[in-house]
Amino acid sequence: MSVNTSRKARIEELRRAQKARDRRNRIVAFGVGGAVLAGLAGFGAHVFSAESDKKAARVAEAKAPIKDEQAWDAKKLGRNHVAKDVGYPMTPPVGGDHHQAWMNCQGDVYDKPVPNKHAVHSLEHGAVWVTYNDRAAKADVAGLAAKVRKTQYSLMSPVREQSGAIMLSAWGKQVTVDGADDPRVNQFFTRYVMGPQTPEPGAACSNGLTGDAVTGR
């Protein structure tokens, strides 16, 4: 065999070896890529399933009965505008005749009592009204105030003569809760901020009365 023939044979052998390595590398790369894609698909399915479970849990919580909630027939509560004070059968009131001016309820926290006849108008517009008396723990008051400030269509004020330390009211609905971390707080907000029982959901909660206006400060 000549030198040239030997060299050509050696080159051809090297080429075949290189092609074999390339095929093996492609097979390995394909396998790794498939495993990665399968892993990503599995991870995505897991995340989707977890999010679906969370959503289902939130929906179930929103539909679950609120323990010890009191309810009145929303359609039978008076809705006339009156200038005089109104005597309400429940404290705080959950509806009835009210003043034509509402309390601002865009996450407003009042440190002094507000007139019922103005707060009831806020409820008519879809607000949740958080109230408390002197028996409420300061930490709970602070926690609820923080929640109200982050929630449009809500307001908060003290009502010293109410029976429960902390109470939540909406149009036709009311519940006494144990504290700021009571799960019924989130339930009540989720269900009744502009809730389906509200006569005028989405009506103005701004450009109404402020704490300064009703206390003369």
Q: Which key features would you list for this structure?
A:
alpha/beta; six-stranded mixed sheet; 2 domains; about 220 residues; about 10% strand; Glutaredoxin
Layout: helices, strands, pairs:
Layout lengths: L2 H61 L6 E2 L34 E4 L6 H9 L3 E5 L5 H12 L4 E5 L7 E5 L2 E4 L6 H10 L18 H5 L2
Q: Can you summarize this structure?
A:
The chain is of the alpha/beta class.
Show unreliable segments. Answer: none
What fraction, in percent, of the residue positions are helical?
40-55%
* Shape label: rod-shaped
What is CATH's topology name of the largest domain? Answer: Glutaredoxin
Order of helices and strands: HEEHEHEEEHH
Protein name: DUF3105 domain-containing protein
Organism: Streptomyces candidus
InterPro entries: DUF3105
Transmembrane segments: 27-48
Structural write-up:
Keywords: Membrane, Transmembrane, Transmembrane helix. The protein is α/β, with parallel strands linked by helices and 217 residues long. The protein has two domains: 1-63; 70-215, Glutaredoxin (3-Layer(aba) Sandwich). It has five helices and six strands. It has a six-stranded mixed β-sheet with strand order 1-6-5-3-4-2. The chain starts with a helix and ends with a helix. The model has no long low-confidence stretch (mean pLDDT 87).
